[in-house]
Structures
1.
Amino acid sequence: MLAVGLFAFRAIPGLRAYFGFRGKRLITCPETHKAAAVDVAAGEAAVGAFLSEPTLRLKECSRWPERQDCGQQCLQQIEVSPENCLVWNIVSTWYEGKQCVFCHKTLSGLHHLDHAPALLSPDHKSVEWRELRPEQLLDVFSTHRPVCWNCHVTETFRRLHPELVVDRKLEPKRIT
Ligand SMILES: [Zn+2]
């Protein structure tokens, strides 16, 4: 009974570490001073938290395999603010309150069950944010504009099948 209680007691920080450190994150690489996308070894962090030995290690980095033997100094940034470097949160904050360039609908942050919003490139192609490499997102945010999912679908169709789209002007008589 005591053992079960002790196990449950230790399992809570383990689970918290696992769920807290999952997901793709953006950090500023201390070597290049540019954005890099990393994954923390969440399973290992969970076992570490369970055994009261915090172990934070990277599982993946966009600069690997070339720089696989780096000192992983960027982990400090994740330790200081694990939430703020989550790609999901960064993207969500960027969309929040912005307007779709086509329909001017105000966008909210990301929601797990919703379709992903998109971005309009300077050459007028819309692309879903998930299709972009995470380490490019910060640069992309300065050159691209927000597009809602509905307009992304419409614009993609219009771009791929211009022969099937007819633009009808609104007739004032029909509206009144
Ligand atoms: Zn729209």
Note: The first strand starts at residue 24 and ends at 28.
2.
Amino acid sequence: MKDRYDMVNQAAHPLAGASMTGADMVVQVLSDEGVDTIFGYSGGAILPIYDAVFRFNLEHGSAMPLIVPANEQGAGFMAAGYARASGRVGVAMVTSGPGATNTVTPVRDSMADSVPIVVICGQVATTAIGTDAFQEAPVPSIMGAVAKHVFLITDPTKLEATVRTAFEIARTGRPGPVVLDIPKDVQNWKGVFHGSGRLPVPGYRQRMNRLGANKLPEAACADFFAALGRARRPLIYAGGGVINGNASFALREFSRELKIPVVTTLMGIGAIDTTDPLAMRMLGMHGAAFANYAVDDCDCLLAIGARFDDRVAGNPGKFAPGAKFIAHFDIDASEINKVKRIDWSHVGLVPDALLALLDYGRRIGFRRDWSEWQVHCDELRSRHAMNYDRDSELIQPYYVIEAINALTDGEAIIATGVGQHQMWAAQYFDFRSPRLWLTSGSMGTMGFGLPAAIGAQFAQRQRLVIDIDGDASIRMNIGELETVTTYDLPVKVVVLNNCGDGMVKQWQKLFFKGRLSASDKSLHKKDFVKAALADGFPYAVRLDRKSDVARVVEEFIRFPGPAFLEVMIDADAGVYPMVGPGQSYDAMITGEHIASRTAVEIQAPDASKMF
Ligand SMILES: Cc1ncc(C[n+]2csc(CCOP(=O)(O)OP(=O)(O)O)c2C)c(N)n1
Ligand SMILES: [Mg+2]
């Protein structure tokens, strides 16, 4: 199973043949894989590897700093933030038992959003596994259900190859989290380092090789263009796969050359520059009205790295009802025809497929005049533009985001918690490039924003990184405020404080007659500014007057170090548009400030589809 990769490494590795401990091997492979930052928390069962990292850093000028969070969940999300912002594999390293179980949420979150991370867990000694030993948890069974792959390493001679294979599995195909469960005696074992070699994993590698080699045949290109040629209103629906598959460049070229407008999912934000004339922004439950109308009006839909999720196609039968042709590009064969019957599909590397199609189109001289459709989309965009109560005396959250956006110009990394603030950020920020928008899309994990922002800042030291958080979401990992100042990261933290779980309140107002069961926090006593000051933030300000917004936001964004801003927003501000769960886009509510094409009554969703 040796390939060129192994041969080159084998020839080159200066430590091949050296005798070292398992712990040292782990660290050496991390270094070989290009790891430059580890996020993790120590403990008994991981001590040998922590010691090996310490010694490695002494010898190599701190080439692999260990960043210590307040909680292992933070470490997992930092690794994920690092990976999302850079495309490189993020690494978290934790002890056995509680350390490992604290990372379950980021592992599942990374699986659901296809994010490549490697989580290294210490485990009790092989002889103690299964005895309810101190700090033992059944990591393979727990993580087996949520990770892309889990390795429990019981044979130390396979340790080196397993660590290397974990990185391969995390980053190839549909990326995802890989967990390494390493018993303490395996870490302490001494053996010969080979400097190359991976596990056979023949089935997986065969599939990956096939994916890479799966070029679009000429006949498929011909079918595609025959169908596209019949379309009068084609639309691209781009998802997170475009970002994760590094296909943004190809997508932009494809849409620009053929002049096809693009809507993106929450995860696909940044796949196309949101300020591009062809960009129709986000579709779905809280998508722009004009984006959803474009989906309703199109007669040909090109789904690229997207999966017809229930937040996009709440009612799959009525999603893109006029589309006579639906094409689907994905890296994962199991996504094809999973939710919606499609007419044409390609499973493979998305950039290769798009570029091959472009090449075919040029060769056959494909040209269509879709200018009428373009004009229609432009009209949708201006007629149904995002808007809110600009005259309100209260601070509207949209206004705050517009003020920040005016300074960052689509170039900042934006991480978020989960809730209304997340949707407002998705709707009102501009994103010029991929990997600037970091959000927990599929899992929707509150507490994601702050640690993800920290991880992203380590990956992109020169970028402005802003966490747009909710007062409830930030509480979940508020311990990580201290991590920001410990490492003197210039992360900007914004809390849009609506005194409660705004998104939950919105659903309770719409669907539960306004009974705010356990979602109102207006009587809570937390002083966020004091909390930030206590954690060492040199800038921590509360903003509660609309007239101060522009000035304070500018001062906050320009502050050179860690900065914290709490904004007391209108507690009743809603997220609009909204397509209720399980409903089709013709039931979209646009609210008071966004023009609707149809008068829509708020419909109570089918209880069986309520989630
Ligand atoms: C870990 C977790 N628990 C519960 C939820 C359910 N939930 C979704 S949004 C939300 C409220 C979030 O409140 P906040 O962070 O203040 O954001 P807001 O909606 O007010 O902007 C809750 C409880 C969740 N998404 N994640
Ligand atoms: Mg809130």
Note: The pocket of thiamine diphosphate (ligand 1) is lined by residues 417-421, 444-447, 470-473, 496, 498, 501-504 (CB under 6 Å).
3.
Amino acid sequence: MVKLGLLDHLAAGPVICAEGYLFELERRGYLQAGAYVPEVVLDFPEQVENLHRDFLRAGSDVIEAFTYYAHREKLRLIDRERDLELINRTALAIAKKVAAEGGALVAGNISNTNIFQPGDTEANRQVRAMFEEQVGWAAEAGVDYIIAETIPWVGEAEIALDVMKHAKLPTVVTLAVHREGLLRDGFTPVEAAKRLADQGADVVGLNCARGPRTMLPLVKEIRAAVKTHVAALPVPYRTTPEEPTFQSLTERDAQCTRCIPDGRPFPVALDPFQASRYEIADFGREAFGANIRYLGVCCGAGPHHIRALAEALGRRPPASRFSPDMSKH
Ligand SMILES: [Zn+2]
């Protein structure tokens, strides 16, 4: 049986990609908030494997290798640069193993480097080198496609896309649009997506930072402006026009003076802002209704969100066996 690729799947219907491994493994006690480096891949590989499997059962069509922030700059900050290649290769092997259990696609992953600077030739040479080594390991592992995600600069995304295209694999580029509503180099999300589509990205869109309510309007504008497939992978939090990102959310319960000690829910006290599974189902229906086909949930997602998304798109993944039936209550 020939395994269909990402673009065949997108031509036929929606593709679900679960993200948010950092937040979920932090909540479970296997990864540190702050550093947010996936050391768990080496320290507790069975936990990464189990989480991939949870998302697969819940309906994810893709197992994304957990190499987010497993790049040279972040590993240098935690003095673990020597483990860079091993983390990447191990994460890719775990993703492949679990994907094979359910016929899922395997995606390689690169992410924001935090060192990109427009016009800084030396910094951007380093960015390219960081992407090249990670994309190289992903290609050697035989991934089906590569995702560049959570990238806040168009210029950084363009380097990522160029490196990914050299690997001759399908490409997904998802940008993070922070509070100002623009990319850090001043482009609107539509302008950014058009540039990346024109440069050959197969899928362009947004991930992370914004909840469904403040991401949907932007991805609908992108949908109207490009001919490529479009991606939307919000965080499962109730962001608002006034506080459009999960980093900008503040507590509004006057009784709650001690609930969040430093007054800043992001990143580890976002629980009161969590979107329910029903809100994620609504997001999925609305996005797919607008012909946005590459869908998922980012930081904060649990398997219940992915299952609700899958069911909203007409699927019945294995975990649907245990979907609620209150007639039995
Ligand atoms: Zn995220």
Note: The first strand starts at residue 15 and ends at 18.
4.
Amino acid sequence: MKIHGLQKMTLLDFPGKVACTVFLGGCDMRCPFCHNAELIDGTAPAVMEEEELLAFLKKRTGLLEGVAITGGEPLLRDDTITLMERIRELGYPVKLDTNGTHPERLRKIIDGGLVSYVAMDIKNSPERYAETCGLREMDLAPVRESVSLLMEGRTDYEFRTTTMDELHDAESFRKIGEWIRGAKRYYLQKFTDRDTVPFEGFHAPAEDEMQQYLAIARKYVPEAEIRG
Ligand code: SF4
């Protein structure tokens, strides 16, 4: 399996752990605010093969406490599950970032004890989901299934929303709140612009708007927080 990026150490990507972050190419969404746009069509060059990654992880035993897998969308393909099995065999807990479009694979890794923490994006209210993902239309059923699966609580998890003036308003957070009511954790993340974001013109909400959105979210998820 091709590995499209490796951050050798991070204190931010895996809650409570010194981890490395593995980037996998390809995604089934086209979010116009994506920070990893060069990865989403799968054409970015690989930086290493799977064996090289595993050799790196073997060497870092005792130094790293976990492996965060991100993308792109890591659950786009079955061989991510094999990669996770191999990382678990080395003794590392795995954290996964996902957009929730592949609940069957998410179920498989939870059932198999392959993942310790899942961070799933909730892009927007159901009404504005496709638009926020950069898609003309989309079937939200798989995303809904992933939400329900995580809320069963068989693995630790968080939901998170990257928040922009152009795509979110108070109604977005009322609708999201109704959807994920009672979730364990929910983070509102302020959009930050970068050169790699494919579309220009997005803006982070002002601080008072973020606080307003947080207050709405907390009516449904008391553990909601602003991150970043
Ligand atoms: S789901 Fe994530 S990786 Fe895929 S396009 Fe959206 S932000 Fe980028």
Note: The chain is about 30% helix and 20% strand.
